[in-house]
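Milestone 3.1: sequence recovery, worked example.
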């Protein structure tokens, strides 16, 4: 479990922790700016950071090989939690995603992303020499699709897409042949374009709810949107981001001038609107640079991982963070359709914070065992 003899303390990446807690600290402050009196979001965020310190410390010292031995158990736990959400979960804004644990509400789909990375890393390592066999692609695809389906029907389209993106990047990193990738792209790209066309024509898409289809249609044709709420968040978000200008309102006009607290879920899915308004273009660039460095560090650790499974875990974590950053900022700036997804370490949410900290702990353990060169 604890393989201290194999660890090189010189490779304990303190700078990664600095970036994580710097982002978390900025995020907690931004949450405090927009929370309403009595919500307690700031206190929960601080609690998440404190728990995160302990989680990173513990997970970073547990050998990731030991964790991966329990991939079957983890997969079953993942399914059990997702089924429990379906049976006993609490609903908010027409989405049933949380389990009420009395002390706090837990969102199992956030943990699903980490478990998926571990399970896929183990499977792709076991079948490394057969990765291009059709039955391996089918087997791993089905295993990934089952929890993804339970997440999709919550309804949680954004996390479902994150998990599928993780699957695609990890199987590519595992050595999937271009002879397979090219036909998939040739079929997949027209299929996606066809999906958008069907949505514009108001055809029913069986795996999307009416509200999700309306969101996508409103994004594709914003001038045709006649509803009062579909584009409301994104329209307001782009306006308040622009109002921050270069340095933000916080320094020049004070907290009282901020309007981002009028945007629904500005503390979570639209936290970048708070960044733009309060800290301006410079502050937004700082957040993006910090997150980019964190992702680059994960990729660099993957390059120097001591073995194949360590490389895959680090790549999986990097892909998870990269996709969430891209989508969260893309939605807040109206470059992508409105779909709720947290900005790692910055958005409010205990479940998101804990899962992100677990991911960092795994990557740091890989770093402790890394080689100077990939063998």
């Amino acid at each position: 479990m604890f393989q201290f003899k194999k660890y090189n303390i010189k490779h304990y990446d303190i700078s990664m922790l600095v970036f994580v807690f710097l982002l978390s600290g900025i995020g907690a402050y931004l949450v405090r700016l927009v929370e309403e009196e009595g919500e307690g979001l700031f206190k929960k965020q601080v609690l998440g950071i404190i728990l995160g310190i302990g989680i990173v410390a513990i997970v970073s010292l547990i050998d990731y090989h030991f964790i991966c031995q329990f991939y079957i158990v983890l997969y079953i736990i993942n399914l059990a939690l997702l089924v429990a959400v379906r049976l006993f979960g609490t609903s908010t804004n027409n989405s049933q995603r949380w389990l009420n644990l009395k002390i706090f509400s837990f969102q199992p789909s956030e943990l699903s992303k980490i478990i998926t990375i571990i399970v896929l890393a183990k499977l792709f390592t076991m079948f490394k020499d057969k990765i291009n066999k059709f039955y391996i692609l089918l087997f791993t695809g089905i295993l990934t699709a089952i929890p993804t389906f339970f997440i999709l029907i919550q309804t949680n389209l954004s996390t479902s897409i994150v998990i599928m993106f993780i699957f695609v990047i990890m199987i590519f990193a595992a050595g999937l042949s271009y002879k397979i990738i090219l036909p998939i792209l040739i079929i997949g790209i027209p299929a996606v374009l066809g999906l958008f066309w069907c949505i514009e024509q108001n055809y029913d898409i069986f795996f999307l709810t009416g509200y999700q289809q309306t969101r996508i249609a409103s994004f594709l044709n914003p001038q045709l949107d006649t509803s009062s709420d579909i584009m409301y968040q994104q329209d307001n978000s782009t306006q308040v981001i622009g109002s921050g200008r270069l340095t933000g309102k916080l320094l020049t006009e004070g907290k009282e001038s901020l309007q981002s607290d009028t945007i629904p879920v500005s503390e979570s899915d639209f936290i970048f609107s708070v960044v733009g308004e309060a800290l301006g273009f410079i502050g937004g660039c700082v957040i993006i640079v910090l997150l980019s460095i964190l992702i680059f560090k994960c990729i660099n650790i993957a390059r120097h991982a001591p073995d194949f499974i360590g490389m895959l875990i680090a790549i999986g974590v990097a892909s998870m963070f990269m996709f969430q950053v891209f989508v969260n900022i893309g939605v807040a700036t109206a470059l992508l359709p409105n779909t709720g997804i947290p900005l790692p370490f910055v958005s409010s949410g205990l479940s998101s914070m804990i899962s992100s900290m677990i991911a960092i702990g795994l990557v740091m353990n890989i770093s402790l065992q890394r080689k100077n060169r990939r063998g």
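The beta strands are 90-92, 95-100, 105-106. The first helix runs from residue 14 to 34.
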